[in-house]
Amino acid sequence: MTVAEKERVVAEGDWRKAPFRHAEFLPVDLDLKRDADGTIRLTTNHPYQPIDGNLARAFLAMAEKKGDAPALAERDEGGEWKPTSFRELARNVRGAAQWMIDHLPPRGVLVIMAENSVAVATMTFAAFVTGRILCPVSPAYGIAGGDHARLRHVFAKVKPAAIFLDPKAPYAKALQEIGADCQIISTDPSVFGNAVAFADVIVTEPTEAVDEAVAAVDPSATGSYMITSGSTGLPKVVEQSLDALAANTAQGIGLIGRAAGWDDEMLDWLPWHHAAGASVLRAGLMLGGTLHIDSGKPAPGLFERSIDNLRSKSVAYFKTCRSATPCWSMRWIATKSCATPSSRRCG
Questions:
Q1: pLDDT tens-digit readout, 289-338
Q2: What is the pTM of this model?
């Protein structure tokens, strides 16, 4: 879309005249079979491209290939996008992995209770490198009042060796009230007292132990605990192998194709403690895309932040939950401003 075209669409105020790019969905190529009992079986003829179940090895290989290309980006305090390259992210992951090898027991559980950030991505893949079990939980568990029943329940079930948190006073209070006995890591340890600074974790000098840990990863073993929503009671802990996570990514690629833009530029707000959000982080880092972390969400005072981010980054695919009324939001963007091409697909 040329500058003149953008100016024309903005001047006319008609979103219906904004051009659209091809979404690059896979062509429909199905094999149809009918069984004698009337069952219809549909099989895609597109070849399935497996993803390495050793997610650490897959990410580090992609980081070696992409080098200084941006892997992740988040807004800084001044509101500007601050990119983190694949090279820098891989170095920090290896440093955090060495710290885990030095300080956490083998197969120890790392709980993460924090909003999406480069720091969270670093700790996530460091856990994959070292064979520690990742357990992301909703930040709401540490903010909700009362007796913190859900957080207490999760800690009793998974018995974490360490927890990474955003530096928030309610989190510190929650950990104290449930009697948490594990190593605390945060970008600002002063909030928690006896905690380790994330900055100190990532500057740990990697040794051969990190490469040995990557080689020793068992993709069939439990690599992550997914915490269910707990809509019918206390949340359940679901074991997930790295093979299962890799298969999920490969199946997503097989169904959506390049339309998802996982190897291109992405913008996403879905939380990484949720299966959908975590899948975007994994796919982006393993396929070499650039994920812009959207700190907005479909909530009062935050939805506008997502709208602004969508204005600044023209992405091929944007998925959200139904409460965000995505088609309305796309119309709102195109009507109010066409600073970027409006060729987005709501997911």
A1: 999 999 988 778 888 888 888 888 878 777 766 555 554 455 444 444 44
A2: 0.86
CA dist 128 and 8 (Å) reads 49
Nearest in space to 110 (alpha carbons), one of 285, 273, 249, 295: 273
